[in-house]
Design brief:
The protein has helices at about 10-20, 40-50, 60-70, 85-90, 95-115, 150-165, 200-210, 235-250, 270-280, 305-310, 320-330, and strands spanning about 1-5, 25-30, 55, 75-80, 120-125, 170-175, 180, 215-220, 230, 235, 255-260, 265-270, 285-290. The chain is an alpha/beta fold and about 325 residues long. The strands form four sheets. A seven-stranded parallel beta sheet has the order 3-2-1-4-5-6-11, with helices on both faces. Strands 7-10 form a two-stranded parallel ribbon. Strands 8-13 form a two-stranded parallel ribbon. The protein starts with a strand and ends in a 5-residue tail after the last helix. It binds nicotinamide-adenine-dinucleotide (NAD) and uridine-5'-diphosphate-4-deoxy-4-fluoro-alpha-D-galactose.
Length: about 325
C-alpha cells in the first residue's frame, strides 16, 4: 500500500517508516519539521536503501495536502503529526488545540475528499487519566485526561469516530501508546528531544553521557512497592510493528477499532534506573525529588486485545530499550 505518514520525520514516525518499507509498503512523509530535522529522511533512506518521498508542509494547509495525496495516489494514512509536551500544553493550551485538532481535521477533510479509507491515529494512554482499574484495557473510561495535550487526544478520537459514522466505508485504528522508548538497532534513529527531556529514558541517557549532572526521581512516596511511579515502557521498534499490524487489520473493513499498545509489564522509575545500569554498565547519579504534578502512580496495559486481533505482541524488554537508547545517545551525542 502507499501510505501517507503525517509527522513521519518524528521519533515514532521515522521508526514506523522503516518498518513499513521493510514490509513492502511505499511511504510518503509530510512533516513541517517543527519538532524534527530533514536529516531524518536521509537516515530512513540509508537504513532501508530506498529513496523517500517527502514534503515539507504544515498539514493544516488542507489544499496543499489534498494535492500531495492526489499526486502521490495515497491509499492510507498514519497520523503522527502533532505537539506532545504535556507541560507546554498547560502553558499554551490554544496552540495545542490549534495544531493537534487543526491538523487532524485537515487530514480528515483531505481523506474524505479523495476517498482515502484507511487511517491509523497516534493516540495515547494519557486518555485514561486517573486509571479506572489496572491493568488498563480498552473498555476503561477514556474521557478524563489531566492536561490539554491529553484532552486533544480524547477530542481527536471523537472527531475520527464521528467522521467514520458519516463515512461508513472508512476504517480507523486508534492506537493508544503507553510509554514509547528506545531507538533503532542501527543507532541511526532515535528520540531527539529539544532542550531538557520531559521523558525518563532520554533523560537517563543524557545523564549517562554527561549532558545532565543527575537524574531527579520525581517522588518515592507513591503507593507502589518501591515508592516510585510505574509505567509500561514499549520499545519503539515494537510500536512501529504495531502500526503495520493495525494497517493489515484495517484492510479487513473493521470500522473503528481501538488498541492499547504496551507490553503489559509495569516498571518503576527505580527499576528502569537499575535496568539501565545493568544493561549499559553506566552509573547514574540520582537523587529523590518531589512528586511531579499530574503523574499517576501506576499505568500499564492489558495487551491481550491487540495480541488477539492484531496478532501483535511486544517482544523487546526494558533492558533492550535501555541498551538501544544508550547506543543511539552514544552514536548521536549532539542529536541529529
Ligand atoms: P515527534 O514530535 O517526534 O513527531 C511528531 C512530528 O510531527 C514531528 O516531526 C513534527 O515536526 C511533526 N509536526 C507537528 N505538527 C505538524 C503539523 N502541523 N504539520 C506537519 N507536521 C507536524 O513525536 P513522536 O514522539 O514521534 O509522537 C508521534 C505521535 O504519537 C504524536 O501524535 C504524539 O502525541 C503521539 N504519542 C507520543 C508518545 C511519546 O511518548 N512519544 C506517547 C503517546 C502518544
Ligand atoms: N521521571 C522522573 N524523572 C525524570 C523524568 C521522568 O522521575 O527526569 C518519572 C516521571 O515522574 C514518571 C516516569 O518517570 O513517573 C515516566 O515519566 P515520562 O515523562 O517518561 O512518561 P509519562 O508516563 O509521564 O508520559 C508519557 C508521555 C505522554 C504520554 C504518556 C502516556 O510523555 O505524552 O506517556 O502514553 F501521554
Amino acid at each position: 500500500m502507499k501510505i501517507l505518514l503525517t509527522g513521519g520525520a518524528g521519533y515514532i514516525g521515522s521508526h514506523t517508516a522503516v518498518e513499513l518499507i521493510s514490509e513492502g509498503h511505499d511511504v510518503v512523509i509530510v512533516d513541517d519539521f517543527s519538532n524534527s530535522k530533514e536529516v531524518v529522511i536521509n537516515r530512513i533512506s540509508e537504513i532501508t536503501g530506498t529513496q523517500i518521498s517527502y514534503h515539507r508542509l504544515d498539514i493544516r494547509d488542507t489544499e496543499t495536502l489534498v494535492g500531495i495525496c492526489r499526486d502521490e495516489a495515497i491509499e492510507a494514512a498514519i497520523h503522527f503529526a502533532g505537539l506532545k509536551a504535556v507541560g507546554e500544553s498547560v502553558e499554551d493550551p490554544l496552540r495545542y488545540y490549534d495544531v493537534n485538532l487543526g491538523s487532524s481535521v485537515s487530514l480528515c477533510k483531505a481523506m474524505v475528499s479523495l476517498n482515502i479509507r484507511h487511517l491509523v491515529f497516534s493516540s495515547s494512554a494519557t486518555v485514561y487519566g486517573e486509571p479506572e482499574r489496572i491493568p488498563l484495557d480498552e473498555e476503561c473510561r477514556a474521557s478524563d485526561a489531566a492536561n490539554p495535550y491529553g484532552r486533544t487526544k480524547i477530542i481527536i478520537e471523537q472527531i475520527l469516530k464521528d467522521m467514520q459514522l458519516a463515512n461508513p466505508d472508512m476504517n480507523i485504528a486508534l492506537l493508544r501508546y503507553f510509554n514509547p522508548a528506545g531507538a533503532h538497532l542501527s543507532g541511526k534513529l532515535g528520540e531527539d528531544p529539544t532542550g531538557i527531556p520531559n521523558n525518563l529514558v532520554p533523560f537517563l541517557t543524557q545523564v549517562a553521557i554527561g549532558k545532565r549532572s543527575e537524574l531527579v526521581i520525581n517522588g518515592d512516596d507513591y503507593p507502589t512497592p518501591d515508592g516510585t511511579c510505574i509505567r509500561d515502557y514499549i520499545h519503539v521498534q515494537d510500536l512501529a510493528r504495531g502500526h503495520v499490524a493495525a494497517l493489515a487489520k484495517l484492510r479487513s473493513d473493521c470500522g473503528v477499532v481501538t488498541y492499547n499498545l504496551g507490553t503489559g509489564q509495569g516498571q518503576s522509575v527505580k527499576e528502569v534506573v537499575s535496568a539501565f545500569e545493568r544493561s549499559t554498565n553506566q552509573h547514574l547519579n540520582r537523587r529523590i525529588g518531589p512528586r511531579r504534578p499530574g503523574d499517576v502512580p501506576v499505568s500499564y496495559t492489558d495487551p491481550s486485545l491487540a495480541e488477539r486481533e492484531l496478532n501483535w505482541k511486544a517482544t523487546l524488554t526494558i533492558e533492550d530499550i535501555c541498551r538501544d537508547a544508550w547506543h543511539w545517545q552514544q552514536e548521536t551525542p549532539g542529536g541529529y
